[in-house]
Amino acid sequence: MQNNTYILFPSHTDGLSLEKLLKEKKIKYTIVPTPRQLSKCCGISIKINPNDKEKVEELLIKNPNIKIEGIYTLEKKTKKFFV
Amino acid sequence: MADYRELWKSLDMDLEKHDKLCEVLPEFYEDVYLSQKNRPEGMNYYNFVISEVHGLRIKELDDHKQNGGKVLGTFCVFVPDEIIFSADAIGVGLCGGSDFWVPDGEKVLPRNICPLIKASVGAKISGTCPYFQSADMLVGETTCDGKKKAWEILNDYTPIHVMDLPQMKRENDKKHWKDEIKLFMDKVEELTGNKITEERLNNAIKLINRKRRVLQRLYNTRKADKLPISGKDALLITQIAFYDDLERFIQKTEELCDELERRIEKGVGVFPENTPRILVTGTPMAIPNWKIHHLIETSGGSVVCEETCTGTRYFENTVKENNKTLDEQIDALTDRYLNINCACFTPNEGRIDDIIRLYKEYNADGVIYNTLSFCHTYSVEYKKVKEALDKEGIPVMMIESDYSLQDSGQIKTRLEAFFEMLKERKSAYAK
């Protein structure tokens, strides 16, 4: 089974600050709409490979100015809209 | 997560209904966009814009309004953005690309008109589109009968200014369109309280031209043998161009183009070799209408260009810059805008020339003629286009469809057969 890890933020500016760091550190990421299971508010989160979770947590400890609302790992499943 | 509910409430939105709309977007976007392989990294910016489509951008419009600025909602590529921006107002394209809004639209409109009109009206009367809710004034035009009459209904909700677009391109039609641009200018000045001067208009012309040039740069990368970006992604960028912050959009799209040009140099493509290259022509696709592109690109084809209002018609040809007088500037605007080849004109031979030219420029293998159900002008025009393409030996297939996904299996089957034919044709020519 494959998983995805999502980082949620109190505001998009925190998300963009983390994006900058991930880019610098060459950690693969995708900006995505926050999955509904995690939050009901529309907005961005950052999806990473679950294997990079620790690296990202370390980065966040070193950069306490970047606020997050949590890191969650969900089972990867894509709903198919087109038959 | 940023909480935009207070903002939405202040815009008099139906929060409960809007929540249902928000529920679908993440999964739908995941299925259509995030499932693609080897997407350019620069697409993260557009993921960001879509994720914040009813959030950050609406907040920016709200801030602009708090500072005394105005927001104008538009529906059509004939409305000159230059006039809006030269009065320090912001122009945004309005919602109308989802099935979600159609039932509300059908409450006040007949069922047998195009889904774009039904969805737009539905989006407004259901109070679930924050762009509609942010608009101080709507700007309509007379590109079809359905829209023309729908303005009268929308006017009950938001003041609307309608530009009378001529349907022929004779000298007196040009004069008429010039007069319409002047009337629009007066209206925008009255609404904003800002005078449109030569300098301001010239700056706005330059700014909008920059947006056009970056979109052209993006489309140029799609002429490459190995496509550095999918058609779906390119479509998304053009759709976003209609409402995003201009400077940020231009900067981010230039950055993406740098990446795409590097991909071309390295020979990196997003599709397998010999994937048929498709030119899509026809009616506009408003967010989140990604249906035809998605079906094409999951049935063994790739879209290389769109001859549509959410494609080349939006950005081809720039407005002449650095004219000294307002009158000359308005002439330049008249020339550029009346040069768009929309099916509302008769005759409309320019569009046929455009399709053939783009087919060659983008090295396409076939054309998909796509029209929204009940769009008379585009459906009728198919006959003339088909005759001309037949004469040129260009394969074309017509798909008429609305926003519902029920016919997607059927369309997929037709597309697969069409692509097989294109492949055989290509290998026969190669021999």
Explain this structure to me?
Chain B: InterPro entries: FldB/FldC_alpha/beta, YjiM-like. Chain B: This is 3-hydroxyacyl-ACP dehydratase. Chain B: Belongs to the FldB/FldC dehydratase alpha/beta subunit family. The complex is a heterodimer of chains A (83) and B (431). Chain A is of the alpha+beta class. Chain A has one domain (3-75): Alpha-Beta Plaits. In chain A, 28% of the residues lie in helices and 27% in strands. Chain A is built from two helices and four strands, in the order βαββαβ. Chain A has helices spanning 12-24, 53-62, and strands at 3-8, 29-33, 44-48, 70-75. In chain A, strands 2-3-1-4 form a four-stranded antiparallel β-sheet, covered by helices on one side. Chain B has helices at 5-10, 15-34, 43-51, 56-66, 81-86, 102-106, 115-125, 130-134, 145-154, 171-192, 198-220, 231-241, 246-266, 291-297, 312-315, 326-337, 349-361, 376-392, 408-430, and strands at residues 71-74, 90-93, 137-141, 160-163, 277-282, 302-307, 366-372, 396-401. In chain B, helix 9 (145-154) links the parallel strand 3 and strand 4 (160-163). In chain B, helix 3 (43-51) crosses helix 12 (231-241), helix 7 (115-125) packs parallel to helix 9 and helix 10 crosses helix 16. Chain B is 55% helix and 10% strand. Chain B has 431 residues and is α/β, with parallel strands linked by helices. Chain B has one domain.
